[in-house]
Amino acid sequence: MIVRPKTTWFRMLFVWHGSVLHRVLAPLLVNFLLGLLAVWGSTHASHFFPHLNPVPFSLIGVALAIFVSFRNNACYARYWEARTLWGSMKNQARDLARFAITVTDLPKDDPQVARALNLVAAFVYALKHQLRDSDPRDSLARLLDGELVEDILRRDCRPQYILECLQQQLVAWCRQGRYGDILLESGLRKLDTLNAVLGGCERIRGTPLPYAYDVLLHRTTYFYCALLPFGLIGSIGLATPLISVFIAYAFLAWHAIASELEDPFGDEPNDLALASLSVDTERALRQAVDARDMPPRLLPDLDFRLR
Amino acid sequence: MIVRPKTTWFRMLFVWHGSVLHRVLAPLLVNFLLGLLAVWGSTHASHFFPHLNPVPFSLIGVALAIFVSFRNNACYARYWEARTLWGSMKNQARDLARFAITVTDLPKDDPQVARALNLVAAFVYALKHQLRDSDPRDSLARLLDGELVEDILRRDCRPQYILECLQQQLVAWCRQGRYGDILLESGLRKLDTLNAVLGGCERIRGTPLPYAYDVLLHRTTYFYCALLPFGLIGSIGLATPLISVFIAYAFLAWHAIASELEDPFGDEPNDLALASLSVDTERALRQAVDARDMPPRLLPDLDFRLR
Amino acid sequence: MIVRPKTTWFRMLFVWHGSVLHRVLAPLLVNFLLGLLAVWGSTHASHFFPHLNPVPFSLIGVALAIFVSFRNNACYARYWEARTLWGSMKNQARDLARFAITVTDLPKDDPQVARALNLVAAFVYALKHQLRDSDPRDSLARLLDGELVEDILRRDCRPQYILECLQQQLVAWCRQGRYGDILLESGLRKLDTLNAVLGGCERIRGTPLPYAYDVLLHRTTYFYCALLPFGLIGSIGLATPLISVFIAYAFLAWHAIASELEDPFGDEPNDLALASLSVDTERALRQAVDARDMPPRLLPDLDFRLR
Amino acid sequence: MIVRPKTTWFRMLFVWHGSVLHRVLAPLLVNFLLGLLAVWGSTHASHFFPHLNPVPFSLIGVALAIFVSFRNNACYARYWEARTLWGSMKNQARDLARFAITVTDLPKDDPQVARALNLVAAFVYALKHQLRDSDPRDSLARLLDGELVEDILRRDCRPQYILECLQQQLVAWCRQGRYGDILLESGLRKLDTLNAVLGGCERIRGTPLPYAYDVLLHRTTYFYCALLPFGLIGSIGLATPLISVFIAYAFLAWHAIASELEDPFGDEPNDLALASLSVDTERALRQAVDARDMPPRLLPDLDFRLR
Amino acid sequence: MIVRPKTTWFRMLFVWHGSVLHRVLAPLLVNFLLGLLAVWGSTHASHFFPHLNPVPFSLIGVALAIFVSFRNNACYARYWEARTLWGSMKNQARDLARFAITVTDLPKDDPQVARALNLVAAFVYALKHQLRDSDPRDSLARLLDGELVEDILRRDCRPQYILECLQQQLVAWCRQGRYGDILLESGLRKLDTLNAVLGGCERIRGTPLPYAYDVLLHRTTYFYCALLPFGLIGSIGLATPLISVFIAYAFLAWHAIASELEDPFGDEPNDLALASLSVDTERALRQAVDARDMPPRLLPDLDFRLR
């Protein structure tokens, strides 16, 4: 996720923002060359050139904008749902922390409480690593003892197993008589919500937008942009390459942002800052037990990027 | 469901993606022939030809795009709701598994637990077969004993009966004193959610978009595309067949994708991969009891398709 | 509700689908006559005719499409919410059936269970008749004994009274010691959901879209269509009647579908098939108690219509 | 709220519907006069007149339609959310009535039950009067005894205090041993929902759409309409005043409807019929206790209006 | 938040509303100068000037409007969700107040009740200050005793710690035997909802719209507006500066409103009136215990602004 640097309307026009530009640079160059070709053709070989004018472009242009807009809406909805799921995970973490330190009547520095909250943090990190296909060993080792870490790593779906361990802790507290069935059930419901977050993230990750949308939109957008110079040359002459690159930029960059947001858990510049969100959640858990060893908040790098 | 193969923007223009194309190939061919006819007519028989120009097309074109876009949004919402229902089913399966192995205090390899989790898996498969009008016998026989399978197959709505059996198991555990009413009620609520998934899928399956939308949009889209060459011939001459096929492709393929997504439980290329989702859910259930006999994950076939 | 008959893209162009067409036939005829008048006028009395050209039509056309689309979205949302409410009613019926036969420990053929499930079915039928302003006597008499039927018919809102009877049954079972307060509360929550369905249907039925939308859109759409021939005649000449009827058809039929869906409980072809949904729910209830006397599923009539 | 009178498509064109028209009559007249001015200017003083043509209007027209449509969607969503909140209030009223007469085991004509249901009705009326800034004394005096009425009227937020009284009644029944904590908690949850209705209505009432939207849209729409005649005069000549009034009507009336719906609790023709909804809710409560003194349903007045 | 002053349609055209105008004044001035340049260039140096005409503007204009509209929808949704979260906080505050004074059986002026409700109010103020990066000391000192205030101020996330204190109070009441587990659980659920409000606000604050949208839209909108005069000059001549500033105003102001709403917790004119909402919530809490010392309602300042 790129953090918005403060700026004025004027400087924002020239802000260096590579995140999407680099994905459309090559096709924009092709478009520019086609614009030059159109200029050259209209003066030197006009009778060989296709008889295009802006009419079909206005016919298809609005339809294309509506369709691109649909894909963009769908992808942004995926992004925002993913963010909401991660937010809900932080909420549950805080709820569980409050639950563990008030209802059980255990002191804040009780090892059982610490282990339970570490399991919650481990769930968050394990989910992050599962969604990014990376190795959770280091994150888990920092939080849990070695044997349990090995146990978790052996499983197919690590967050699911961590939830199971956590549930066993809640049930154990109930069997120790720390609370009755009603509060147990209330605690288990929080775990069910964590599980729903896990399932929701797997759903977004595992089911991209139907591929036919991508293919159809990709083809129509690029074909539209490729023909554009030949449609504009008759009306705006020498300005064709510039204007056609501008229109192509709007369409292609819009298309490219949507592609980045489609899988919001990836590692691209506009994706969610899962690492930073995980640390935030761990900090909230640490605060709940007045811990001293707060992990430092992640700061954006020199490209204003937060991972 | 077609899985997105990794590719660049350039190769994506030529990726072979038959899923929607084959549905619009015939009308596109007709459109191309009409384009040739318009070219021929404009030179050889211009006084016989309808006096069309692009004006009415720009009048109706935007309206058409907005209406096609409505239908597309509605169909995609059905698709995504269906996916969310199946995701919710997996969540409940995991919740029930955690419930059965922590709250009842039964060992993970207890036959009652195994039977309960097999009933959950059987619910998933029975729903898949009901939604696809296929025969669930093999899937059920793999999970449950013969008599129960016969019992299930005799019913009108198999998943409903499986839920009933599952509920009887939960109530039985309560009567055995394994947990009290509060946890029983918590378990039953999970079954109610499974039932809501069943009902939601039946709703999406049983109530397509009002038919009048289909008829109206089909007629206007095809009529629009059929007249298009005669509207463009005056402005772009010989390029008419190509450009008119391009515009028709955008509209017809968009219309066709929506038609595929309308019943997301079908067997068409862009429909939900119910078989693969069922196996995923069964794997999650198996992991919960540390089972060794995990069913292998389904992999996409050579057309990148997941069923 | 019209069930979609299987067909190809080609035959679908000519499918006889009277549902919406008959509502717009008269205005389309008027539009056609205005088109002929425009053709006649442009050749015989051109100096008397209004100096129109397509410019104002493209100005207002897009705005009109956007506004028509808003009304259509709102009406479809009402339709789909109504369908979802009826789906939720079926879910609750099944939940109540499972509840009655597993938690109470009564046999499936116990008269109390039968009466409770009949009350659920009676609720569904009573709601259907209330929404369609028809007489529920026959449906109720088939399910409940005569005195209770008279009792119900005396009330202002019959479904509300049926819920009350059902709630008394659930409370009675609790007082008989069949279950405790926790399960009673769980049962009562299902009745609250049924009540929310009743309230939701009353809301949709009792509050149509603000009337000003209808009047405004009706006037602007019809005025637009009436002027259209005079705007097109200068550009497309003899093709005017045909093309203007085509454009008018798209706008008016779209407007008409939305009008049908606005009250989804009516008896028009695209409305919800309440009769069929009621029977489906009764069948689900019957299956739950292994009843033999399943009411037969309603089949679409010769016009593919399901009521 | 205006009730839709039954009519045909033809008579609907001429139906007298003053609700919105009277708000746009003055600007439409100005627009008509500007149209006449444009006609006069184009013949008598064409060299003094601004050189306008339809080009900028088509540039800004679509954008304007999209922006007007956004505001309209947002205002309609407020209207429908408000209606849903009032619907939810009726649902809770019925739920509480069923609760009071089945769970407490009190007879239907018990004074405590009557008082509780009167408190629910008083909540509804008090909310109506708060939202419309009117005096609730008469409505409350009809339902509650004098001292309590004075007590309520002294408070800042009357519905909040009524809820408190109701909650005390529910708690008292629990202390009398009529039900246990579980059913009490279930009753209190219904009051929390009533409270959420109160809060939701206050939110919609107290936070209109950001004012900047209104100012921006108002200015651009009116400026657009004022310039329109001068843009059209070159293309459609004498038809300018008529056509420009038609286009202005569509935009301004659309803008005006949205303004009416923005505060759905007002007293304008398209606002919610709070008086009628309150009576409906009271009738539902009366039916629950088989009361004879049903308040008569409010009927629309001669302008088809329901308040 | 700017409160809507009552006005007529005519005076509204000239209402001084600086909130957004001041953000677009500079670019509008630049646009006006470019318009003058275009007028000058078209008469004095027409052969040096780019050959533009309105064609590319109509191609890109609609697409731009659709994209601007997407960003606006997303930002408004953030604004409204934030408002709904604050509304939900007020609901919970009232629920907790009713809970504390009816269920615990403590008198309204009991110090424990007062402290609990002050903690709720402190939560609201602490959240406001966290969202606006301001110092909560004064607000907290007014409500809580000094030691607790210091304790709260030491924490990283103050509202989280206040919730913890509140939860300890609810648990303490349960341990004192004032209510059982069921009502405790019901109280804790309200705290979980307050926590969800905290998390939701942090989510909206911490995750702006992906930055790429801002950059892309900013560039395309400003570039579009800068080129506009040169596109219009050929069609509307001397009217160019005026009309082009009008079109630019619509696009840029729309863009600017969305930017203000994106972070609805800021201190800009159209942001949420957090100070006023906090006082409203405190007033509701004070009313619940019949307190005399109601904080006065905040009134809009001379610019109709509510903070």
Automatic annotation (TrEMBL), chains A, B, C, D, E:
GO terms for cellular component: plasma membrane. The chain crosses the membrane at residues 20-40, 52-70, 221-254. It is found in: Cell membrane. It is a multi-pass membrane protein. Keywords: Cell membrane, Ion transport, Membrane, Transmembrane, Transmembrane helix, Transport. The keyword Cell membrane applies. GO terms for molecular function: chloride channel activity. Belongs to the anion channel-forming bestrophin (TC 1.A.46) family. This is Bestrophin. It comes from Bordetella genomosp. 10.
